[in-house]
Amino acid sequence: KQWYQRRVAITAGKEGCDASCNGPYQGRWSKTMIGYGVEDTNFVLELTYNYGIDKYELGNDFLGLHIESSDVFAAAKEEVTDNGSKMLKSPDGYLFHLENKNASSGGPVAGITLASTNIQATVSFWSEILGLTVFDQSETSATLGIDQSQAYVKFVHQAEINHAKAYGRVAFSVPISVLADAEKLAIEKGFTILTPFVTLKTDGKADVSVVIFSDPDGYEICFVGDEGFRDLSQFDPEGSNLLDKAIDEDKSNEWFAKKGKSKSSA
User: Fold this and answer.
1) Cβ–Cβ contacts within 10 Å for residue 126, how many?
2) How far is 111 from 59, CA to CA, in rounded Å?
């Protein structure tokens, strides 16, 4: 039984993305936006598939995604932990923490947890440069977000962080004017801009402007211009069917086998 509800949009490319949408790879790729509701009002996951990569080395940076839903909790067959939650692990090794609660107005995804080697430095960057609100903070953890109705980002102190090869990025939709101001402030404060302000062309859809930042621990944060995002994030009623079709038509394993090769590991 599926414990998630698919709300899907799909993008595909034949070569690398100007904003490294598919990571440091230059081959054929596709990405799928998936979540419990439309992307405009819900936290969604961007799943990237590089056709020539078989698996990715996981790091210790991403500590889990938190879901609050009594329906999801009931559908999960895992045992209840001592704190009353359930923990799932995806086929690729990512953790999902389930709480037996009613979903908020922002949807079932409550937030994510990431590791931080310096809580104060992390809070300073995410609040002063990116403009997030600090909900709570201690010596070993901090929780921030846009507002209480949206998914949070929680940081837990960890001595060392290894992003390895499977790390992703966190994205926020913001007015285009905020992109330029935040980029300027980050540069003035000596932080790294991974992708300076750029407008990406999307076939058949709106162009979208982005700036990608790097925080003190090397996490990638993407600010997306809200104006283009509103059009680009429209729910595709055929999304689930397109995803199923793409999975059925993916013959990359057969192609590699025919060539006497195997997919590489990142």
Assistant:
1) 25
2) 19
| SS3 track for 63-106 | EEEEEECHHHHHHCCCCCCCCCCEEEECCCCCEEEEECCCCECC
The DSSP secondary structure of 202-240, one letter per residue, reads -TTS--EEEEEEE-TT--EEEEEEHHHHHHHT---TTHH
pTM: 0.84
74-105 pLDDT per residue, tens: 999 999 999 999 999 988 889 999 999 988 87
* C-alpha 249: how far from chain center: 25
d(CA 136, CA 58): 28
| φ, ψ for residue 72, nearest 5 deg | -65, -40
Read off the tokens for 188: 């003035």
Q: Is the dihedral of CA 54, 58, 62, 65 positive or negative?
A: positive
Closest CA to 214 of 241, 232, 195: 195
| DSSP symbol at 132 | P
Residue labelled with tokens 């901090």: 142
pLDDT over 70 (residue 3): no
